[in-house]
Amino acid sequence: MAAAICFGASAVRADAAVDMNKIKVDGAKQTMTISGLTTTDSEFLVGFATKGQKSGKTVFKVASWDVYTPVSNTVTVDLSNLNSTKDNYVELKYQNGDIAIVKIPAAAKKCIATYDPISDTLEVKAGASKAAATAAAKFEYRTAVGSWSSAQDLASGKKADVGFELYQPQGATLYVRVPGTYTDGGDAIAKNDELKDVYEADNLTDKIAETYQSVSLPTKEAKLKIAKQAKSPKVAVNYAKGEVTIPAKTEYRVYGSAATSKFIQDGESVKYVSNGSKASKKVSDLLKDGSTTYEKGFIEVRTAANTTKKKAASKWAHIDMIAPAKIIDAELAAIAETPAKETAGFVNSINDKGTTVEDKAATTGNVVTKADGGTLKYGGHGIKYAQITNGKTDATKEVFVTAKYGTVDAKKECGQVILENKGEKTYQVVVKESKTATVSDSDKASTLKPNGTLTLKNLKTNQWVFIREAGVQKTKEWVGEYKVMGVVDIPLTKVYEKPADE
Fold first, then answer.
1. Sequence-distant (≥ 6) Cβ neighbours of residue 83 within 8 angstroms
2. pLDDT at 366
3. Are strands 99-104 and 210-213 parallel, antiparallel or unpaired?
4. Up-side HSE of residue 95: CA atoms within 13 Å toward CB?
5. What is the tens place of the pLDDT at every residue in 463-499?
């Protein structure tokens, strides 16, 4: 039999010929291509035949013919509208009038796709029925409005890390199928020895001499629902205490602003820490990685995946963090060597021999006893650091917090220290008995508001004043770290009456 054929009924041009070896069916793209045509081939007719029985014989009948015009000596026939779950037949006619039939075998009637969102694993089975479905070798997928992906391999019907995590944040409906062929460009049709003793419905005398078989088309699509991730958990943040409270049954990871750009929990970007019960954690601890404490970073918290229900973890809650800022020495203006105005010219100590009194300098060695009488002024060298500045020493210097003495109770030997805030930040102030005392959130702190004043009452000499930037919940400002502002030295006055002459 000659290898050249023409498409259509007897009315088709007799010079429209093609080599059967150049007919290919692409099951993935669902097309049939006829290439290698001559420039004289102006049109082709393709018939989709129905298989039936007539007078005890197997017959094929074409109800209507489709006309194609070659493009670059090639005709492309769309097969996507065919029902792939049953056998389909394309009828061809040779120039001498003989018939050729190309069978497109049925694909699996059932395609079953399941997805595990925790491991991002897809499983695909295909078969004549759900019960008979077996592991597929390859799959394709698309979104509701997208085009089909290329065929991807399956191992025992499964593919881990399939990449469907991409669709979890918003949820999606995907369509999955088993492709009909895996060869790029399609497979050439092959001789089919199964179709024998077949005829055209209008010619029961002459057998159809040539029968061929192609690859199958893709299976029916399986609809795969990717569930939308649950909302992120609510994470309590206490800016005033510098704490993040992580809910129970969650997991979290912390990122530090290091040059390595990594999540610092366990030192790897993919690691996170499971949190079985509710826990409050200090920002200063979260941003610590060994001996390194990062100035800033963030924490991400999510509800853990439910392996029993195969429910993915929730979305991440994202909280930016700043390590507690410490007021540095450069921002503290030291004025300890400058006594307060009320004590100009006097020393800040007294001994059992007495002390300096007005108009007698301490450097002269003139020590006055109580018997001398007069007014005694002592103390008042002030808070060691009496100002908080921007750390500049030139014309750009700004003073934010200043300190001065208020009312003094000479009898109780105590007095007031008045702090004035000229800046926009809020501060917290704590008074302790020791310079090395630990200051914690349990200590009662006084608040120095922006552009406000704070009067510390009943302070005694040698008490210590600690100050920090306050955390502000409303504006999400993280609390700072306490720093010694200075030691108290209350300016006191005593009057010694000179004893009467004996």
1. none
2. 42
3. parallel
4. 14
5. 999 999 999 999 999 999 999 888 888 887 766 666 6
As given in the structure block, the two tokens for residue 34 are: 């006829």
pLDDT band at 15 (very low <50, low <70, confident <90, very high): very low
Q: Residue 361's pLDDT is what?
A: 37
Secondary structure (DSSP) of 170-189? T-EEEEEE--S--STT-EE-
Give the number of other CB atoms < 10 A from CB of residue 34: 24
pLDDT band at 258 (very low <50, low <70, confident <90, very high): low
Distance CA 88, CA 25 (A): 12
Sign of torsion over alpha carbons 359, 361, 366, 371: positive
- What contacts 238, CB < 8 A, 6 or more positions away? 244, 245, 280, 471, 473
Handedness of CA 237, 243, 249, 253 (dihedral sign): positive
What pLDDT is stored for residue 100 in this prediction? 79
Within 8 A by CB and 6+ apart from 320, the residues are 296, 297, 298
State the maximum Cα–Cα separation within the chain, in Å, rounded to a whole number: 163
Comparing CA positions, the residue from 374, 219, 232 lying closest to residue 299 is: 232
Helical H segments across 10-63, by residue range? none
Among residues 75, 58, 78, which one has the least CA distance to residue 12?
75
Residue 43, SS3 per DSSP: coil
